[in-house]
Amino acid sequence: MQTKLARWSQDQSFNFDDIMNIVYDSDFLYEAWTNVASNSGSETPGVDGATAEDFAENLDGSLTDLRRELKAGSYSPKPVRRTYIPKGDGEKRPLGIPTITDRVVQESLRLVLEPIYETDFTDQSYGFRPGRSCHDAINVVQRSMAPQLRSYKHWILDLDIAGYFDNVDHTTLLQILQDRITDRDVLQLIWDTLKAGVKENGSVQVTGEGTPQGGVVSPLLANVYLNELDHWIQQWTDMTAAERNWRRRRGKGAWKYVRYADDFLILTSSPKHHAERMMERVEEYLDEELELDLSEKKSELTHAQDGLSFLGYDLRACTDTGGCKMYVPKEAKSYIRSQIKKAMDGPTDVSPKLKIRAINRVVRGWAGYYQYCSNASRVFNTIEHRLWHKTTGWLSKKYKCGRSWLIRNRLDSKSPITINGETLVQPGKLATSASEMPFRNRHSHPYLGEGGAGAENYWGKRYRRELPPEDPYLANAEKWSDEMARKIRARDENRCMAVGCDTGGPGEENLPVHHIRRRRSKDDDRPENMVTLCREHHGLTHQGQSFKAYHRGREEIVMLS
């Protein structure tokens, strides 16, 4: 169905006037539930206090009731729960956490709207879109800041919209949506979602504007809103080769536009005063057409040789080499150092294997993002040195010994650190060159792709034709359950995941597989609800005793009882 929506959207005059039935379709709702449940925040409750686990206790009934409400038009979104997370500049970013039910509805809405609007979105926007990444946007900017290339743009407007997600005008957004979506029920659903309100300190505040960060459909709606800006600016950026040559001969220069969410750059080879005039035009357009303002604090005109920060990278044109240098910023170095310190200054009542797996995940993710930087090798080697000392310090504290004794008697290998078969990552070996950064200047429609059948094939890997039955069955009574138990043991390497216990291992007697939440239906036999335990700890759970265990699938500590 997503492929059909994408195909229909190729006709710019096509109006989608009957798609609410797709939003509440059983398959779409189940797919939406699967996506919500697999998200790391699924156990974070909304204003009703319910988590994904609570929703799943009667999954079939919950989805059936939700479908009935959506179909009858009686569904009403609840206010989002306001919470705050720290930002890199020391400030706090407000988040709005919807209820699990509202997240499922928003995700189903996203599954329907995204194939349609991916047709309308331009190649110059990269944020919160399938098949696109921060690296794609950074790569385009880097190539435009390289003096040796003909595409070099020396003046750069580094622009940021003030409080963008909190200032989207609801009426304007609905007017934009109506150019494509004419289904009154869908428009009403979006309007009700935007107007649901925010609950903070026990009181509910009416939301007059904004799409709350934390909402599942908010990034898509935010892109729909700024897509107007993307198309408006194409009158300067989208030109034929003949038009660009004509402008170049007359000293008018060329323009390049790159946007990731509410951060965007406009690069030009024109004189400085042309760039200054462009900033004025953008300010006027945002104010008059979208009722938005540029952030005075974060928006500036800069020269490519002076450099700028974009999506966590520091970029600077280099006249000596003719290229654009990319650097790991100071804030990123401080972040990874603090994460290593936080991990290795922690308690020692966890096994070395679990500690190393946890820190490896953090370091690999960080290094994977910055691996293309010009100074990646030097920075990564420094981080590797720090990681080695912090890890051996933690191990020495755990085994109450000195580093020398630890290396001789406990470690399987000193460099890289290996203990009990688990090896500590070596960041210095993860650095690569900027030339290896994937470059995709043009992107095919993610729901059509080559041959026009990409979405159905992708979804088919996890597509479920019917909702799970309500009747429970015995976990060991069917071959499928035995196969799942084998998968869980393989994931956990047949080791007890209880904190501080190293019982078991590959090749040893199969350990029991335990359900974290008491088994009530087939849906409870999913990997995120199962963990391997030794017989002693498995017995403790049936005696009502509680203890902590590491969950490899979730990459977190869970409480078992």
Q: Looking across the biggest beta sheet, what order are the strands in?
A: 2-1-4-5
- Number of helical stretches of at least 4 residues: 21
Helix-and-strand structural type: alpha+beta
Major sheet, described briefly? 4 strands, mixed
- Strand percentage: 5-15%
Any descriptors?
single chain; 561 residues; alpha+beta; 4-stranded antiparallel β-sheet; 42% helix; globular
Helices and strands in order, then pairings?
Layout: H1 2-8, H2 20-23, H3 26-38, H4 52-56, H5 59-72, E1 80-86, E2 92-97, H6 100-120, H7 134-144, E3 155-160, H8 164-167, H9 170-177, H10 184-194, E4 198-200, E5 203-205, H11 218-232, H12 234-237, H13 241-249, E6 255-260, E7 263-268, H14 272-289, E8 300-303, E9 308-310, E10 313-317, E11 324-327, H15 330-344, H16 352-370, H17 376-399, H18 403-409, E12 418-419, E13 422-423, H19 454-460, H20 479-491, E14 513-515, E15 530-532, H21 535-542, E16 547-551, E17 556-560
Parallel strand pairs: 1-4
Antiparallel strand pairs: 1-2, 3-7, 3-8, 4-5, 6-7, 9-10, 10-11, 12-13, 14-15, 16-17
Helix pairs in contact: 1-6, 3-6, 9-11, 15-16, 15-17, 16-17
